[in-house]
User: What shape does this take?
Amino acid sequence: TVTLKKKTQTIADIATTNISAVLGAELRNLNRDEARKHGIKGGVSVDKIIDGGLISRTKVQPTFIITSVSGEDITSLDELSKALANATGSVRLEGIYPGYDGIYQYPLNLAR
Assistant: This one.
């Protein structure tokens, strides 16, 4: 008897699990004081990047603060999970680096 199982999962399949594990990074919500300091409504801080994770395949560096995914505002881990659960293919992570000017953009391929 052979049991066939789904070989790969999509982000939607695993969005209800830990988004940090899915992306391969230590992520956390910005608190109100941090957001105010950076002049943003909120966001998700990338504190550490784990080798082999989806984010490690981009040029994102630790301290990056994700503020939108493909134009959809992100102010929390829950919003990030929902945005990625509805996405397919590639998305565009947008955000800031504390102490640096400008908005940075990184393509993220969701294929695992």
Notes: Helices lie at 11-14, 19-23, 32-38, 77-85. Residues 12-16 have pLDDT under 50 and may be disordered.
